[in-house]
Amino acid sequence: AQKITQTQPGMFVQEKEAVTLDCTYDTSDQSYGLFWYKQPSSGEMIFLIYQGSYDEQNATEGRYSLNFQKARKSANLVISASQLGDSAMYFCAMREGTSGTYKYIFGTGTRLKVLA
Amino acid sequence: ETGVTQTPRHLVMGMTNKKSLKCEQHLGHNAMYWYKQSAKKPLELMFVYSLEERVENNSVPSRFSPECPNSSHLFLHLHTLQPEDSALYLCASSQDPSGGAGETQYFGPGTRLLVL
């Protein structure tokens, strides 16, 4: 079974609109971390936002927010006021395990295209 | 330079060649990682070094040999590779592998490898 599932291989959004990228995860750990990364065509993975499993509030970083629904095991990324520069691949990732035995698992990604 | 740098950015090699990928981080982090990214597949964690000791090796073939001489540098030595090893190889670093937001990984731009 996949640990990180991103069901949207591709998404389109109009410039200045908001968009939600879906991510569900599967773990039996109580302590884990969830991440979103952006990968432009240049290849570099750019860290966007982090959510800890014990964090009670949804993480926010500028135009990015993470809609964390622990019971549903979902960690959707919301990008508000989309910009043309937001066009890229977006990866959801999870860190599980304990210190010294951490595993980082990535989803297959969602390709976002922002339309002018 | 700042962040995580990788050289070379592009590499073409034959199956009998020996080459090395280099990663350098300028963030004062104490953990470094090698990932392989193949087309349409999730990111695969290959190796993890924490405080210059290897703590993770995800059953990577021996034709890939990592080296971490200090906390700022990480190498991936390649020999007798196969065409299916062609991929984007990403290096990452993090501050503290013991949990929390501190273990957020910061990635380099990657080396795009083609094995002929």
In short:
The complex is a heterodimer of chains A (116) and B (116). In chain A, β7 and β8 form a beta hairpin.
Describe what you observe in this structure:
The complex is a heterodimer of chains A (116) and B (116). Chain A has 116 residues and is mostly beta strands. Chain A is 0% helix and 51% strand. In chain A, strands 2, 5, 6, 10, 11 and 12 form a 6-stranded mixed sheet that branches. Helix content of chain B is 0%, strand content 55%. Chain B has strands spanning 4-7, 10-13, 18-25, 31-37, 44-50, 53-57, 64-70, 73-79, 87-94, 106-107, 111-115. In chain B, strands 2, 4, 5, 6, 9, 10 and 11 form a 7-stranded mixed sheet that branches. In chain B, a hairpin with a 2-residue loop joins strand 5 and strand 6 (53-57). The model of chain B has no long low-confidence stretch (mean pLDDT 88).
The total of helices of chain A stands at 0
Rg over C-alpha atoms of chain B, rounded to the nearest angstrom: 14 Å
**What is the CA–CA distance across the termini of chain B?**
33 Å
Unreliable residue runs of chain A: none
Share of residues in strands of chain A: over 45%
Radius of gyration of chain A: 14 Å
Shape of chain B: globular
Output the number of helix runs of chain B: 0
The percent of residues in helical segments of chain A reads under 10%
Judged by helices, strands and strand pairing, the structural class of chain A is mainly beta
Our estimate of the beta-strand percent of chain B is over 45%
The strand count of chain A comes to: 12
* Biggest sheet details of chain B: 7 strands, mixed
Broad structural category of chain B: mainly beta
Largest sheet descriptor of chain A:
6 strands, mixed
Question: What's the assembly state of these chains?
Answer: heterodimer
What is the molecular shape of chain A?
globular
Q: Biggest interface: chains and residue counts?
A: A-B, 27 and 27 residues
- Overall mean pLDDT of chain B stands at 88
Estimated helix fraction of chain B: under 10%
* Number of E strands of chain B: 11
